[in-house]
Write a structure and sequence with these properties.
It contains two helices and five strands; from the N terminus they run αβββαββ. By secondary structure, it is of the alpha+beta class.
Length: 158
C-alpha cells in the first residue's frame, strides 16, 4: 500500500478555499469521505472500494483521490492510475466472487447518468443469468440502440 494521504475528509474539504480565498461551501461528496472498511486498495492517486450500493456482488468503484468531476478533468498520470486500478479490482473480485464476466465503465455529466460529480470507474462483476439477455451490454443506456445486431440496415458484427 502507498503512503499517500487518505481520501480528503469532509472537515478538510470544508476548510479548503477557492482561488479568491473564499471558503468552498457545498454538499459533501460521498466519494471524498468513504468509510475505511469499504476500501480494499489505496494507490498514490486512486483508491478501490466496494460499492456501498452494489449492482451485483463484488461491484467496485475506482475513485480518484483528488476531487475532480470527470475523467477528462483528471491529469494523464491520474488517468493512468485509474486504468491500472481496473486490474487490481478485477483480481480481488475474481478471488472473492468468481464472476463470469465484467462490465467496466464511467459516466461523464448528468446527461450520461453521472450521479456523483467526482471521477470514478465502475467495475461490475457479471454472472450468467444476472439478466435475461446481456447482448448489447452498455449500449442499453440508449435502449432503442442496444440490439444493434438486429437493427434494420446493420451488418452482423462478430
Amino acid at each position: 500500500m502507498c503512503r499517500a494521504p487518505a481520501v480528503q475528509s469532509a472537515a478538510a474539504r470544508a476548510a479548503a478555499s477557492s482561488p479568491d480565498g473564499a471558503p468552498v461551501i457545498g454538499p459533501a461528496c460521498p466519494l471524498c469521505d468513504v468509510k475505511d472498511e469499504l476500501v480494499y486498495f489505496r494507490g498514490e492517486r486512486a483508491i478501490v472500494l466496494w460499492d456501498p450500493v452494489p449492482a451485483s456482488p463484488g461491484h467496485s468503484l475506482i475513485v480518484l483521490r483528488r476531487h475532480v468531476a470527470s475523467w477528462f478533468d483528471a491529469t494523464p498520470e491520474e488517468q493512468r492510475e485509474l486504468h491500472r486500478c481496473i486490474g487490481v479490482a478485477r483480481a480481488v473480485i475474481d478471488v472473492r466472487h468468481r464472476p463470469d464476466g465484467f462490465t467496466v465503465g464511467f459516466e461523464v455529466g448528468e446527461a450520461a447518468g453521472q450521479a456523483v460529480p467526482h471521477v470514478h470507474i465502475h467495475v461490475i462483476p457479471r454472472y450468467v443469468g444476472d439478466v435475461p439477455d446481456p447482448l448489447g451490454g452498455v449500449r442499453w443506456v440508449v435502449p432503442q440502440r442496444a440490439l444493434y445486431r438486429s437493427a434494420p440496415g446493420t451488418k452482423k458484427v462478430g
